[in-house]
Amino acid sequence: MTPAELANLAEACRTADELDRLEKAVRALPDLVVPGSTGQPKVHPLLEEVRRHRLLLERLTTALNLPDDRLIGDRGPTRHARKAARSRWQAWNEYQNGDAPHTAAAWRADAS
Questions:
Q1: pLDDT for position 70
Q2: Containing structural domain, residue 79
Q3: Mean pLDDT confidence for 86-98
Q4: Which DSSP state fits 56?
């Protein structure tokens, strides 16, 4: 990893630790609603911090671009593109081995 990637990884680890502490604090709250400035009910501010930390952690881990799709940073479109590519290669290999019912013309029509 480059020095910038290592710094990003360290920040992601710190953010994950902070998120863990925030989530524990939220679980310990007696109520998730607090009175606002005029007495109206409003969501506890810790919930907003948890949300922000989750978003930050996702951004940091996505920026690392690690190859393991089990990590937090692997987004749906990446997973979908990888699955689609595997499917195309499998179909092409079946065609090449004569295991698929495709004709060459059908394969070209499917590929476009």
A1: 58
A2: 75-112
A3: 71
A4: H
